[in-house]
Design goal:
The protein is mostly beta strands and about 425 residues long. The chain has helices at about 1-15, 40-45, 335-340, and strands spanning about 35, 70-85, 90-110, 110-135, 140-160, 165-185, 190-210, 215, 220-230, 230-245, 250-255, 265-270, 275-285, 290-295, 310-315, 315-325, 340-355, 360-370, 380-390, 400-410. It has one domain: Beta Barrel (Porin). A hairpin with a 2-residue loop joins β17 (about 340-355) and β18.
Length: about 425
């Protein structure tokens, strides 16, 4: 009963908190914002691997995992990040706290399971100042700001073809709004200019997955997986306004809406290219696991026609991730530490963004703990990540971050017939 009360409270919190601003990165200006982790705390702590599946945890990346699920699983998580931003002028520290996901997995039959939930897809959140001096020695002050993001609701199903072969599919619906503001004024001039852009975005995409996990030498398991996140076809309904304001009072003086219909920008399409992920791993059930994944995305075809990004181009993106876990003795009665799941990993990502002729890369190391609760299968999962993204050269920003995530995973049995009336 306690777990259901806790999960209900989390549902209410998430319902009121998903409009939060969960990015502090200048790089969230580009594309449709920062792409948030689409995985559970357990998977994030293993370098973000999605290939590992078991019978008691929900796997948000890999719908084939629902074919293995044997217990109803409630899961939710939140996180906190400390971020250091460094450019040629100096260093600034900031932080952000956010909710990550809320999901429910249900075994329907011994061979089939379903799952559904909500999680953030992208986040926009930045506030950047830049000064430049004109040919006539006027100092122009520019302020760039943005906020918003996309959320995703999903429905997944997985099926067991054989004991070693599972397949699954997910339908995702993404929705949300993005806002971008540019404020410009000249030092000593009474009035400045505000340009504001808003986009209401929605659309579908699909995930397909297959895992093959044969036994080797009796007690070992070979893990192989293929996951395909199909192209997301998003539609964007746009608005733009241009106005002036008083630099003394900050009050807007006048403004007008831009006729986007005439510019053929009122309704635009955003096509997020397909991501294909291959995984290979090896391990012993409830003892240890080690695996690696390679992901490729044809991001070079991406365009956002509404938001002018003259200093950015895109190339194909890729990610390499390795990770695993160790459980000293999952059935130990004498030592709690031996029943803890110790997770670890690393990842290297070429984001596909090329800004001011510099490729933006992101790399980090991860580790985590799966802490059992009581004698059942419930657990608290802690995840930690340290990483660096970007560069402080070429008028850009280097971000170093330390993230702490906490997830709850509760299990229950449904649809069981009573043995005694």
């Amino acid at each position: 009963m306690l777990r259901k009360i806790v999960f209900t409270i989390l549902c209410l919190v998430v319902a009121t908190a998903y409009a939060q601003n969960s990015s502090v990165s200048p790089y969230s200006y580009h594309g449709i914002g920062d792409i948030r982790a689409q995985s559970t705390v357990e998977n994030q702590a293993m370098g973000g691997l999605g290939m590992y599946t078991d019978s008691i945890h929900t796997n948000l990346q890999n719908p084939a995992a629902y074919g293995k699920l044997r217990l109803v699983n409630y899961t939710a998580a939140g996180g906190h990040a400390e971020v250091t931003l460094t450019d040629y002028t100096g260093t600034e520290q900031t932080s952000v706290t956010s909710l990550q996901y809320l999901a429910l997995g249900i075994p329907i039959t011994p061979k089939m399971g379903i799952g559904f939930g909500v999680l953030p897809y992208t986040s926009v959140g930045y506030n950047v100042f830049a000064d430049n001096v004109t040919a006539v020695q006027d100092t122009v002050v520019n302020q760039f700001g943005g906020e918003g993001g996309l959320n995703k609701v999903f429905l997944s199903a997985g099926y067991e073809i054989t004991k070693s072969f599972h397949i699954g599919a997910t339908v995702n619906y993404s929705f949300g709004s993005l806002e971008y503001r540019t404020v410009q004024n000249i030092a000593g001039v009474q009035y400045g200019v505000i340009n504001s852009k808003q986009s209401q975005i929605k659309g579908f995409d699909f995930n397909y997955a297959a895992t093959y996990t044969p036994r080797i030498m009796g007690r070992y398991t070979l893990f192989t997986s293929l996951m395909v996140n199909t192209q997301a076809n998003l539609t964007s309904q746009n608005e733009e306004s241009l106005g002036s304001f008083s630099t003394i009072t900050g009050e807007e003086i006048e403004g007008r809406d831009i006729d986007l219909e005439a510019l053929d920008l009122k309704n635009t399409e955003l096509k997020i290219p397909t991501i294909t992920t291959l995984g290979l791993g090896f391990g012993r059930d409830k003892k240890w696991f080690l695996g690696a994944e390679y992901s490729l995305q044809g991001l070079s075809s991406f365009r956002n026609e509404f938001v002018d990004q003259s200093n950015i181009t895109y190339k194909d993106a890729s990610t390499i991730a390795i990770g695993g876990y160790i459980i000293p003795d999952y059935a130990s009665f004498t030592s709690y530490a031996k029943r803890v799941n110790y997770r670890f990993g690393a990842r290297y990502e070429n984001t596909g963004m090329v800004i001011n002729a510099k490729e933006i890369k992101d790399y980090g190391i991860t580790f985590g703990l799966g802490l059992p609760l009581g004698a059942g299968f419930d657990n608290i999962n802690l995840g930690f990540m340290y990483g660096i993204r970007g560069t402080a050269t070429a008028n850009l920003v280097e971000e170093s971050y330390f993230k702490v995530n906490i997830g709850l995973s509760f299990n229950d049995k449904w649809f069981q017939k009573r043995k005694i009336n």
